[in-house]
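Quick one: Mlr4654 protein from Mesorhizobium captivum, structure tokens please.
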Amino acid sequence: MIRALLAALLLTTPAFAADMSVFVRNQRSDGVALELFSRDSEKVWPGGDKVFLIRPGAKKSVPISCEPGEHICWGAWVNGDDSVTAGVGPDNDRPCDTCCFICVEHSTETVDLAE
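--- reply ---
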């Protein structure tokens, strides 16, 4: 009986969110907008039709809360001109082998945006 109760508690324990950071280095001469997209759900960071704005030459640390093991990809574009893109782009519809990472608690992923 106690084993069954413990097993039920373990199975009903909700998954915890992991807190991690994405460190963005904008090495471009233009300001960029950036969004993060989950490959495992419909989640987008920062969400709510907002974007992370990074000034030309700036570095910015972006905290996110994600599910451990979640696959996340980044999309960036020149602020005001979404025809100049990097990563998966503003609509998360471009192929990219090097712009995704896995959510890991207390970790930092670095994104370098070059000319």
